[in-house]
Amino acid sequence: MGKKRITVIGSPEEQDIKSKRATKLEQKKIREGKMTAKAPGLPGGQRIVDTSEESLREYEEIQKRLAATPVPESTDTPITPRRPVRIRSKTYQKAKSQINPDQIYPLPEALKLLRQVSLAKFDGTVELHLTAKNKGIFRTLDLPFSSGKIRRIAVADDKTITNIAAGNIDFDLLLASPDQMPNLVKFAKVLGPRGLMPNPKTGTIVADPATTATKLAAGNSLTLKTEKDAPVIHTIAGKLSQPDAELEANIQAILTTLSPLSKAVLKSTMSPAIKLQL
């Protein structure tokens, strides 16, 4: 007694069996000369038979290729759209053409070139973009000359705390004595995300906040720190209106404080970048 094969109607297995049977039937018709096709130009819808061995081999080869081709698996990974290419103005391109991208410039030459390629119609800020050897760097530096940045500095007292409670935060830096810190704890969720919460690591918790505020108000103090996830430091060194001697002294002080560095780039507001010799 022969073996019986049970198949559920409508199941994937049944569909697969039907597909194989249809393929075998087509191949059988080709071998027997029963496979026909329409031929243009024949009257009455007449059909022709293709019984050549070459056609049969070609058909079988196509079937093998289709069977061997893997079905690509669908992925749920979202496709990240490409960022649009930024098109610079002709003025910027002309300024950039004056800088050799393969050359590393000494500081005096870089400052001279920076003034030539500056595009701002106002007193632009001189910027340094540095790559350090390691992450987690934090330095406080007093520059020889002004950094050109005016910071609004507040001292934590009863009046300042009242303004913070009312939502009036009109300062860029908050200094506090250790005695005032308990009064500021309740504002940590407001000051913390803005980077304004006094912290001993940033030098904003001091014994004499008033004296420190006067010193910092001169604009010579600079905080240098790497980004959270990369050994990269972005800082300023002064204004284009300052003499080259002042800018050179400020830049040299920054580079010395952060030494050793892997890379240094000098630029000003809206200008192309210049590779700086370390």
Automatic annotation (TrEMBL):
Region spans: Disordered: 1-25
Matches recorded under InterPro entries: Ribosomal_uL1-like, Ribosomal_uL1/biogenesis, Ribosomal_uL1_3-a/b-sand
GO aspect biological process, one term: regulation of translation
Signal peptide start-end: none
Record keywords: Repressor, Ribonucleoprotein, Ribosomal protein, Translation regulation
Tree of life domain: Bacteria
A Pfam family reported for this protein in Swiss-Prot or TrEMBL: Ribosomal_L1
Ranges annotated as biased composition (Basic and acidic residues): 15-25
A GO CC annotation given for this chain: ribonucleoprotein complex
Similarity comment text for this entry: Belongs to the universal ribosomal protein uL1 family.
Protein's name according to its UniProt entry: Large ribosomal subunit protein uL1
Organism of provenance: Candidatus Amesbacteria bacterium GW2011_GWA2_47_11
Lineage: Bacteria, Candidatus Amesiibacteriota
